[in-house]
Write a structure and sequence with these properties.
By secondary structure, the chain is α/β, with parallel strands linked by helices. It has 2 domains: 302 residues, TIM Barrel (Alpha-Beta Barrel), CATH 3.20.20.80; 140 residues, Galactose-binding domain-like (Jelly Rolls), CATH 2.60.120. The chain is built from 9 helices and 25 strands. It has an 8-stranded parallel beta barrel with strand order 1-2-3-19-21-23-24-25, surrounded by 7 helices. The chain has a 5-stranded antiparallel β-sheet with strand order 9-10-16-12-14, with no helix packed on it. Strand 1, helix 1 and strand 2 form a beta-alpha-beta unit. The radius of gyration is 26 Å and the shape is globular. It starts with 24 loop residues before the first strand and ends in a 9-residue tail after the last helix. The relative contact order is 0.16.
């Protein structure tokens, strides 16, 4: 599910590890920043509406759950006020813990614990006493300004969608060159792809920066616009795109990517489904990315060596310590940006590295998924310490009735030194981590029920047997991740696809997991949940439904509850064996 889905949900209380399937558990998920007094007022009002509508629980998540001790006293007071209202209304409260997939807030405590991608033997050169990335002798990208063209087709680019109808060389609107590349709908109002592509040569496990000047005018497809880096086998290497505005003047946007094991890639610029408005592109550049977002911990070693590999240079002797002060701190702690000013690395006068010398550098950098997502490295020995601390703080300050583990959409794993040192697959790493999280919760707060999202443990969803998954290493990297998930952990199943949800429900039911359904209603009719309830009714352990919104829409809270209760009263439920 998306970042927002992971922020808005509903669930139920499981008073024991054996769930009574005859009783409907009807919950709603509430994301809140309880540091803001007005948000507490709104949250309390929503609790009152939910209780009146028949809900019996709430799943509370707050990014501040990772920032205990850094906040004013009023935060703890606001949390207590919210919890007291839950108790008064007999609404059971689950608290979200263990942010493994969306780890930004936890990484505010130590950004170097982010999951990383390796760079191997990238060439750097000393220029004016500073170690900088060596620029390739031959430009990686040809005709990045689109100055060479014929019949609306830029020279050197592999293809352009419908030149003269979708793609245009524009000599009237431009940034600094003679022309720009304009994309727009074809006038029919139907969605059309508008893209250009160029095949580029890259070095394996090198780190690249792509930038372009961009302008929009009443452009309706900013969300579908992307700089896509696609490998020959179809794997996408860039999953980040800066947020665009429907109308804005020229602005430079930036992305980075790691080439992984590939030597050639297809670089796309464009939009996947435009109807109206215009977008212009100009001054495209591809260059080495340097040390932006470099990770520094024992599991992400740095090596600087001579070209022949015979000399290993020493940090803080042959070159200054290499750190990126903006890593996870741009513009505030927990916030990562794909591109910012490169760290400057000075070469001392007494260094063995001389002016103009070429060296080879190996290191690890993190990556950003979509707008902001960065995940923690589950294999690093310090990471469980952060999880343990967070669980303890939530127990002490929230006193929840249950815990909800935030293991969803884990999109980075397996590549950095901490992961490879384990000798385990990403699925095995995840299985160990979720088992450890359950163990830590039960040690901290015994006998409290625990729940988790379904997707990372579902072979019909993100844990499929084959296929690449974002920046996770391997083919079918999460398959088998469910092997160490305790059978009494409640699964919040959000695999609503009618064609496969039956297999998903059966998978967890056969393992003995109680299940609740995370109903999607923002884009579906209210009564669509009824078909899903009928599919789930034959599964032992099915016990409830969650109200789910990723648009923070609670206008359908009451209608959704009525629809659920109408169907619940008419379907037989099976108890677990």
């Amino acid at each position: 599910m998306s970042r927002m889905v992971s922020l808005f949900l509903v669930m139920l209380f499981f008073s024991s590890h054996r769930v009574d399937a005859a009783e409907l558990r009807l919950w709603f998920y509430l994301p809140a920043n309880l540091l803001v007094d007005e948000n507490v007022d709104e949250g309390v009002a929503l609790l009152q509406r939910a209780a009146k509508a028949g809900y019996n629980g709430v799943l509370l998540t707050d990014s501040k759950f990772c920032r205990w001790g850094q906040l004013p006293d009023r935060y703890e007071s606001n949390v207590k006020r919210f919890r007291e209202e839950c108790r008064r209304l007999n609404l059971e409260c689950f608290a979200a813990v263990c942010p493994v997939g969306y780890s930004n807030d936890l990484l505010s405590l130590d950004p170097n614990l982010a999951e990383g991608l390796p760079v191997i033997d990238a060439p750097f050169i000393v220029k004016d006493g500073t170690l900088v990335p060596e620029q390739p002798a031959t430009p990686i990208l040809k005709n990045g300004g689109f100055e060479e063209h014929r019949n609306n087709m830029p020279t050197g680019w592999g293809f352009a969608d419908d030149p003269g109808k979708i793609n245009f060389i524009d000599n009237g609107t431009k940034y600094e060159g003679n022309v720009s590349l304009r994309m727009q709908g074809d006038g029919t109002g139907e969605p059309r792809n508008a893209r250009v592509m160029q095949k580029i040569d890259v070095k394996p496990f090198h780190y690249y920066h792509v930038s372009v000047m961009l302008k929009t005018e009443n452009f309706d497809s900013v969300a579908a616009t992307n700089i896509a880096v696609i490998a020959p086998d179809g794997r996408q290497l860039n999953w980040h795109m800066p947020l665009l505005k429907k109308t804005e003047d020229w602005r430079r946007i930036d992305i980075t990517f790691n080439s992984l094991e590939y030597t050639t890639l297809n670089l796309y610029f464009g939009t996947w489904g435009t109807r109206h408005g215009k977008i212009w592109w100009e001054d495209v550049r591809v260059e080495p990315a340097g040390f932006v977002n470099i990770l520094r911990r024992d599991g992400t070693p740095l090596t600087v060596k001579s070209e022949d590999g015979k000399i290993i240079y020493i940090e803080e002797k042959d070159f200054e310590k290499i750190v990126d002060p903006k890593l996870g701190n741009d513009p505030y702690t927990g916030c990562f940006t794909a591109w910012h000013e490169q760290p400057a690395v000075r070469i001392p006068k007494e260094s063995r590295i001389k002016e103009g010398q070429r060296v080879l550098v190996s290191f690890t950098h993190t990556s950003i998924i979509y707008g902001e997502q960065v995940g923690c490295c589950m294999s690093n020995p310090k990471f469980p310490e952060l999880l343990k601390w967070q669980i303890e703080q939530v127990h002490q300050n929230v006193e929840p009735d249950g815990y909800f583990m935030s293991h969803d959409e884990i999109r980075q794993c397996g590549w950095d030194g901490d992961c490879t040192a384990t000798g385990k697959t990403p699925a095995e790493i995840l299985a160990d981590n979720v088992a450890l999280c359950v163990q830590m919760i039960r040690k901290e707060d015994p006998d409290k029920p625990i729940a988790v999202w379904s997707d990372m443990f579902d072979p019909t969803h993100n844990a499929q047997k084959t296929g690449h998954y974002y920046h996770v290493k391997g083919n079918g990297p999460w398959f088998g991740s469910w092997e160490k998930l305790p059978h009494d952990v409640v699964v919040a199943n959000w695999n609503s696809n009618p064609e496969i949800r039956g297999k998903s429900l059966k998978h967890f039911s056969q393992r003995g997991h109680p299940q609740i359904l995370a109903g999607y209603y923002d884009a579906e009719p209210i009564d669509a949940i009824q078909d899903w309830i009928r599919d789930a009714a034959s599964c032992p352990g099915f016990c409830g439904v969650m109200y789910t919104t990723w648009e923070h829409r609670y206008d359908r809270l009451e209608a959704f509850a009525e629809s659920v209760k109408r169907e619940w009263d008419h379907v037989p439920k099976k108890q677990p064996d």
